[in-house]
Here is the input.
Amino acid sequence: MEMVQKGLLPRLEIRSADPREPVEVISVPKPWRLVGAGNYAAVVLHPEEPDKVVKVYAEGRPGLREEVEVYRKLGRHPAYSECYGAGDTFLVLKRLTGVTIYECLRRGIRIPEKVIRDIDAALEYARKRGLNPHDVHGKNVMMIEGRGVVVDVSDFLKDEYCIMWSDFKKSYYALYKPLLLRFPVPLPGPLLNMLRKGYRLVRRRES
Here is the structure.
């Protein structure tokens, strides 16, 4: 925790201009390394602690205390990370090392149906623990050695129903499984980004 408080936070610069888009990471102090960025926070790691990551929330972004509560309710489960500790603006989490489903699509990595079933089971487990899986999409789920895991649980305390994972599954079974499962090909990042923005626009209009 002291390493985070003194070595990371004073020199880490992140900002969030749009809560619907990933935060912008301006600078990360050495030897810390950026792992990824979501709509609320950036995730970094220190080479001396390779099995842990630090999730730092951007200024003004809500949800840290809620995320701590989500991890408390989840307990230990192979499809989720664990929270080892928290500060005012950060969480220390168990590192999940794999490839997001989004990256699998972008790089042409095969996504077995087992991964989809694993994520379904993980989300059902969360529901049984009194949580409401929310904002589950290709960048928030991951494949690790052929198994599916859920990377981001920060919105699992929200009340409203979220259809994103259901829509992703429909696309998987209607398009990916018959067309790309046996012979996956890389899908360009700009195409995936266009599809993502188009999907959000359609859902906003429908709601």
Q: What stands out?
A: The longest helix spans residues 189-206.
